[in-house]
Hints:
The complex is a heterodimer of chains A (275) and B (334). With 275 residues, chain A is α/β, with parallel strands linked by helices. Chain A has two domains: 1-71 and 160-239, 3-Layer(aba) Sandwich (Rossmann fold); 88-157, no CATH class. Chain A has helices spanning 43-50, 73-79, 95-101, 115-127, 143-156, 173-190, 201-207, 225-228, 231-238; strands at residues 5-14, 17-27, 32-36, 58-63, 66-67, 80-83, 161-165, 193-197, 210-215, 218-224, 241-249, 252-260. In chain A, helix 3 (95-101) packs parallel to helix 5. Chain B has 334 residues and is mostly helical. Chain B has one domain: ABC transporter involved in vitamin B12 uptake, BtuC (Orthogonal Bundle), CATH 1.10.3470. Chain B is built from 14 helices and no strands. Chain B has helices at 2-5, 9-33, 41-49, 55-88, 101-115, 122-141, 149-173, 179-186, 194-221, 225-230, 235-257, 263-275, 279-303, 312-333. In chain B, helix 3 (41-49) packs across helix 4 (55-88) and helix 9 (194-221) packs antiparallel against helix 11 (235-257). Chain B is globular and about 65 Å long. Chain B: Belongs to the binding-protein-dependent transport system permease family. FecCD subfamily.
Amino acid sequence: MNHTIKAQSITLGYGGKVIIPKMDIVIDKPEIISIIGPNGSGKSTLLKALSRLLVPLAGCALLDGKDIYQLQPGQVAKIMAILPQTVHAPGDMTVCDLVAYGRMPYKKIFEKLASDDQECITAAMEATGIQQMLHRRLDSLSGGERQRAWLAMALAQEPRILLLDEPTTYLDIHHQLELMKLVRKLHQDMQITIIMVLHDLNHAARFSHRVIAVKDGLLFADGPVEEVFTVENLRALYGVETTIMTIDQGGSSHLVCFPHDSCLKKEDGCAPAVR
Amino acid sequence: MREIVIDPRGAWRTGISITGLVALVAALFWGIRVGAVPFSTYDIWNVFIAPSANEAYQIIYNIRVPRVLVGALTGINLALAGCILQGVLRNPLADPGIIGVSAGAGLAAMSVMILWPGPMALVPAAAFLGALLAAGIVFLLSWDRGIQPLRLILAGVALAAFFGGGMSALMVFHSDKVQGTVNWMAGGFQGRSWNHVQMILPYSLIGVLGAMLSYRQLNALQLGDEVAKGLGIRVEKARFFLVILAALLAASAVSVAGLLGFVGLIIPHIARMLVGSDFEYLMPCAAVLGATIVVAADTVSRTIFSPVEVPVGIFMAFLGAPFFLYLLRKGMQR
């Protein structure tokens, strides 16, 4: 079943300070959606509101037409899973313990994990390639492995919508790329809607179907990558000049952007040299 | 899939459970046997099989048994309260003192002992009410759409300082009457009777039941509020009830045992080193360990310098703190 998330004239903020004055968004297709924007623009705030982590000051976030705050939290947890930007767990926890927590929404009090839960846990670990690390302690994992373990926990919830808040933070470029490919694979294999906040514009351009750009709490642009990813938009968003190019690799092409210093036209003779 | 079922920690955990329970039974048994009048196993057997109103029955049934039971229940309550608070507040330094329980109980008990001396039987009730009152104040101060862990800790520290000032004032202005209160402040089980068992037992039962019902919430909470919410936990509600549970456990413990610090802070850490931080195993382990250590320490402290009885609180601090530091160093090297 296809799930729909909708933000309806949602106003968001913390302690009376408004971050997002009024915003409308509809997400109704199982796509990979990236939320981009400068620091402090309200990207993470928006993600939190969509995932029931932040009560809106006004308006509401709807899941399948119902206010997510009217739904049972356990019910929401079976449809969507969230991986916050910074997570912490006791170091002695093992990978399989962590992934098993993903089954919590499905368990009643005193109910033990059954064999279908175990299958789910195994599937989640296989999907993220950590099945060999089953009994490893979390404090013995590398950053990339740990991030995949957390992702496996979210997958064990069997979500239809997966929300990731800057999933590549703290990872080196190799592991960033691996993680993004993993996210794409999860989307392709399971048709999960993926909504993520990304700082790396090139990842957003390469891996998403739709990009939502937020600036100063307002929806600046929303659409397919080619539409949002323009020199004008990026300049307005970040105040940075970029050169946007198309790269062909692996049988497909995607946009990349290269940021540079000045806003000078070619005829002024100061455009960055591309050799 | 088979691999998940076979957890390498399983055997270790089973071993710890059996060892812990055996140690607890041994501690209880030893606590009943030794003392000013030592008894044989046969004497103890007789008390329960063929009760007769002789001296052995009087000592065993009315003095030793209630004393070890109060000790065990106090150990259970403080250890569980400590586990819950460390989990809920996500702070390794949290102990029952942090929610104001010790300060409230101390000031209330001291006021009764100094200002309205008379029936000592009132002291536990006063301590219990004082502890709950203090916890309630800390609760209100830390409230902002749910309990805020950091605010709770700061409010607890501030309130403890305030009540501590009250206790100091009482001691200064009534220095002639301080003598009687000192033993209570140090914590101990001298002269504890079946009445005290009755006072604490209901809360121990509530605590054990609450622990069984809430280990999943505690496990989720230690992953952080956002992850816990994402897993469908009602974080504010869970935290609210768990802090109340911890307050009841700690208040009932200090009301019968006095200000027995240390147990609620250190036992959860030792349990964590033994079985890890999964609350499903952590809380039973801490409860058994707390009971065993309090009973054993009480037995040692009343026999080692016999006939003088060292308050068990002092004894535990002197032996337990270095032992804990030793464990900490050992754990760091690993």
